[in-house]
Structures are given as C-alpha cells and as structure tokens.
Amino acid sequence: MSFNLANPVNTALLVYILYTVQRILFPPKSLPKTIPTEFKNGYSWMPKSHPPTLLYKKYTPKTLEPFNGQEGKRILLAISGVVYDVTAGRNFYGPNGMYANFAGRDASRGMAKQSFDEEMLTSVDQPLDKLQDLTPEEIDNMKGWMDHFSSKYIVCGELVENDAI
Ligand code: HEM
Predict the structure, then answer these.
(1) Comparing 8-17, 48-57, 67-76, 126-135, which segment has the lowest mean pLDDT?
(2) Domains of the chain in sequence order
(3) How far apart are the first and last CA of the chain?
(4) Other residues' Cβ atoms within 10 Å of the Cβ of residue 139
(5) Cβ of 162: how many Cβ atoms within 10 Å?
(6) Helix residue spans in the chain (DSSP H)
(7) Would you say residue 134 has pLDDT above 80?
(8) Which of 1, 73, 123, 145 has the most crowded Cβ, counting Cβ within 10 A?
C-alpha cells in the first residue's frame, strides 16, 4: 500500500500531522506581559495578595486588650487561657456588639457565669483569674462555650501572665 498524496484525504492527514508535530516541537509562547491575578485562562496566576495569615502566639492581658475591634481592627478574646480570633463575630464583639465587653479580654468568668457584668472581667494589670471559686456547673458552662468558640472561630494563641513574656 503506498501513500498517495494525490488523494485529498492523505494530503489533509499529512497537513494535520505536520501541524501537530510543529505545535509539539514549537509550542506557542503566549506568556502574558503582566502576571494575571485572577483565574481566567489557566492555572498560572498569582492571587492579588497573600491570604491573611494568623500567627499562633502568646498574649498577656495587656497585649490582648488592644484587640478589641475598635476602628475595624481584629477582635480577640480569651477563655481559660485559650485565645480566639472572633473578628468574624464583629456583630457580637465589635464596639456596638452585645458582647463587646469581652473583646480583647479574658472572658472566662463571664462565660462560666453567663454574665457580662463588669465585675466578671479582671483588670488587665492584675494576675490572671484562676477561676478557683467556680462551681463544676459553671466550669462545664465555660467549657461548653469553648467548644462553641473552637467550632466557630480560630484559636490563635494562649493567654499568659503579664510577666511571663
Ligand atoms: C438577655 C439575654 C440574652 C439574649 C437575648 C441573648 C441572645 C443571643 C443570641 C440571639 C445569640 C446568637 C446565637 C447564634 O446566632 O448563634 C447569642 C449568642 C451568644 N451569647 Fe447571648 N444572649 C443573652 C445573654 C447572654 C449572656 C448573659 C452571655 C454571657 C456570657 C451571652 C453570651 C453569648 C455568646 C458568647 C454568644 C455566642 C456568640 C458567637 O457565636 O460568637 N449571652 N446570644
């Protein structure tokens, strides 16, 4: 059997093969002039900015306090030594939120006693609240809140004494 180029099918086939081989050997270089920042034509793109990252670190009552959500900034609160980033719950903990008193503070006692009274909060220059007088029910209640917070917010650090770092 011979390959007869006079046959238009063969000619078309040959052209197609040559074209395909040429594409493999010399792929088109269609590199964009600027790096794309959104997914449009393929996977070679860079996000506009790095996604927000959270650094797990130690906080003291004093260093935690500024994270009270004022001026749209991050909101952190602590329960039993665990610091949660509750920025996503700004409606609750932001400046006009129902639980704004807990923003930037150790909320353990308030969570345990289900109260946002002022005396639930330990002054930031005092040693950490040891919670020793709490009843087992109150401790359970506090742990229930910790479960709630762990499932909803990001744990971003631990609360230690002012002189510990
Ligand atoms: C007048 C009594 C209260 C009412 C009407 C009330 C109402 C609410 C409502 C509607 C929610 C939202 C529930 C959801 O969508 O998941 C909520 C959440 C919450 N409440 Fe209360 N509450 C009251 C008292 C308290 C008290 C005394 C505390 C003190 C610890 C408290 C702490 C919280 C916390 C920590 C959340 C979770 C917010 C979050 O998911 O970030 N509440 N409350």
Answers:
(1) 48-57
(2) 57-164 (3.10.120.10)
(3) 87
(4) 14
(5) 14
(6) 8-25, 61-64, 90-93, 108-113, 136-152
(7) yes
(8) 145
> CA 12 to CA 7: how far, in whole Å?
9
Asked whether 160 and 59 are in contact (CB, 8 A), the reply is yes
Q: Is the pLDDT of residue 165 over 80?
A: yes
Residue 111 C-beta-side C-alpha neighbours within 13 Å: 25
Q: How far is the CA of 1 from the centre of ligand 1 (A)?
A: 85
| Burial of residue 116 (number of CB atoms within 10 Å: 0-12, 13-18, 19+) | middle
Q: Which residues pair with 84 in a beta bridge?
A: 77, 155
Tell me which of 77, 86, 92, 121 to substitute to probe ligand 1's pocket, judged by most ligand atoms within 8 Å of the beta carbon.
92
Contact 60, 66 (CB under 8 A): no
The structure tokens 């797990």 sit at 56
